[in-house]
Amino acid sequence: SVGDDLESIHSALSIITNNKYDFVFITGGLGPTHDDITVEAFQQFFNLNKSIDKDYLYKLNKKFENRGIEMPKINKNQAIVLDECEILNNSFGTARGLFYKYHKINFFILPGVPLEVRGIFNTEIKRAYLPSNESINIKIIKTTGCPESTLSSLIEDLFNSKFKIAFLPHFTGVDIKLEDIRNGNREKNIFMELCDKIYKKTKPFSYGWGSDTLQLIVINLIKEKKKTIAVAESCTGGLLSKMITDVQGSSKVFLGGIVAYSNDIKNSILGVNQNTISNFGAVSKETAREMALGIRKMYKSKIGVGITGISGPDGGSKSKPVGLVFICISYKDKYYDKEFTFAYGRDNHRKMTAQTALNMIRLKNDIIN
């Protein structure tokens, strides 16, 4: 992380060029304001000539004109190009990126907005500038609900010196990374057979491959079975609804949700009995059940989910500690509920709870089969 001043940027570039890096990604400082000096610092350090791309300047003017705004004069800076640099087009913003090759170092200068960084990387950089991985077979198995030590013991008989197996844990699951490291061996069938064996041996924890998400798998299963889902959330604050609606096409099965943070909302909107809350508490199996049933009836959904818990850092007690959560799935005349304690901080508690709710649906055969 480097400050917005020429000396700091030059110092960082000096360190980088004196080391044997292959790829360097620089993000931020491509905007039009006075502190956006990345291009200027780069131009000075490598002693490159600069000029104005008149075609792009015209396009910039048009962009502002189409929005009914006169382009500020300072935006002219975003049309600057440097000799010996290649332009990286930006479909999500006005700041274009640059590519510059210095000896064996590949420099990529990108805007700082994450959406724009990802867009330029995926559309401009990935295929045109990065080495191909065609000679390396890599597969990722997605798992959830099981620690890496248990997963390792499940597949230890399949460990093979010709294949590299790595466990990549995070709060919502463990990714198993499988890599074929045989030199020049292009027989993929042996590697794929191993991948399939590991996937089967890690069931029911394995749920997908590569970029698959649990919400994608679950929503597709619900869609396939022509069912619908609605959710009532307390401690997760709408995160489960957000995860579901991240999936393209989820509107076909997701009817809606309610964040019932207060007991009054649980009672007046979802129909949770006041006696249930008084006798068992807002954080209880009984309350989660009535939340799940209430949301299912309210939205006339096939599947209802109720979540109530204590994300912390306050609100816990000896009998109900911070991290406690109850999740209930209501389906037909049945309840599938479980109690968990995820004492890993407020943010991670919410993520783990939402992930677990999805996983409970995935594992219930009479719901998704």
Low-confidence stretches: none
Structural class: alpha+beta
Strands, count: 15
Q: Characterize the main sheet.
A: 5 strands, mixed
Multimeric state:
single chain
Query: In percent, how helical is the residue content?
Result: 25-40%
Q: What would you call the shape?
A: globular
Q: What series of H and E elements makes up the topology?
A: HEHEHEEEEHEHEEHEHEHEHHHEEEHH
**Euclidean distance between termini CA atoms:** 50 Å
How confident is the prediction overall: mean pLDDT? 93
Q: Indicate the proportion of strand residues.
A: 15-25%
Radius of gyration: 27 Å
Kindly report the spatial arrangement of strands forming the biggest sheet: 12-11-13-14-15
**Number of H/I helices:** 13
Task: Note the topology.
Blueprint: H1 6-17, E1 23-27, H2 38-45, E2 50-52, H3 54-66, E3 80-82, E4 86-88, E5 97-102, E6 105-110, H4 114-129, E7 137-143, H5 148-155, E8 163-170, E9 173-180, H6 188-201, E10 206-209, H7 214-224, E11 229-233, H8 239-245, E12 254-259, H9 263-268, H10 274-280, H11 285-299, E13 303-309, E14 324-331, E15 334-341, H12 346-363, H13 365-368
Parallel strand pairs: 1-6, 11-12, 11-13
Antiparallel strand pairs: 2-3, 4-5, 5-6, 7-9, 7-10, 8-9, 13-14, 14-15
Helix pairs in contact: 1-2, 7-12
